[in-house]
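Minimal example, chain plus adenosine monophosphate.
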Amino acid sequence: MTMQPRLVLLGRQGAGKGTQSARLADHFGVVHVSTGDMFRTQAAQGTAFGLEAKRYMDAGELVPDEIVVGVIEECMAPGGPLDAGFVLDGFPRTLHQARELDRVISGRPLDLVIDLDVPREIVFDRIAGRRVCENCQRTYHVNLPPTVPWVCDTCRGNVRQRDDDTEDAVERRLALYEAETIPIVEYYRARALLITVDGVGEGDDVFERLVKVCDEQIS
Ligand code: AMP
């Protein structure tokens, strides 16, 4: 398979996209590009841009296309992930973003788009019960808390619910996913780039499935 694959991982929020994208990027030695992580970092640093993005994120809404496309355009500048290979996580999220991605990476087409499939009921429980360490971002679940309640086992940081993980916000994000992101699945399917991978099960098993699919599909 090509040494530095260019991959996109699609999937509902809570499907395990973030974790699996990071593992895949590590496995293939390419860059993990997460628009959500970029926005969260900027918001934590309190930049004007980050605080604006946070308003949308906290409301469970999508950050406007112009902003997100600008961020990706900057990120894909020469010498970046476009040369090194990448796993895109959380982008594209609308059909417009998918078309813009084609423009930004033109001449270096995607190798594969993976739809990590986890049913709505399962992801709802995962996200609404998710708790995250403010410091190192390690994630827990209300059913599987840290040893000392809400103190991170890894770094002793404060473990809390992300502002955009409340039940209301999760409902909105999942509805948005159905409306905005499913058309992207069809867009890539029509171009024979899409493969669906079952995202239900233990993380290690899902990861094995993902690597197998990449090895089989990318020449
Ligand atoms: P994530 O960590 O991927 O779930 O992203 C967290 C939040 O960041 C989303 O709910 C959106 O508000 C925002 N966001 C991340 N990526 C995008 C994108 N490609 N388009 C619009 N909004 C985004």
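Strands lie at 6-10, 31-34, 86-89, 112-117, 130-133, 139-141, 159-160, 194-198. Residues 13, 35-36, 39, 56-57, 61-63, 68, 90-91, 93, 97, 164, 173 surround adenosine monophosphate (CB under 6 Å).
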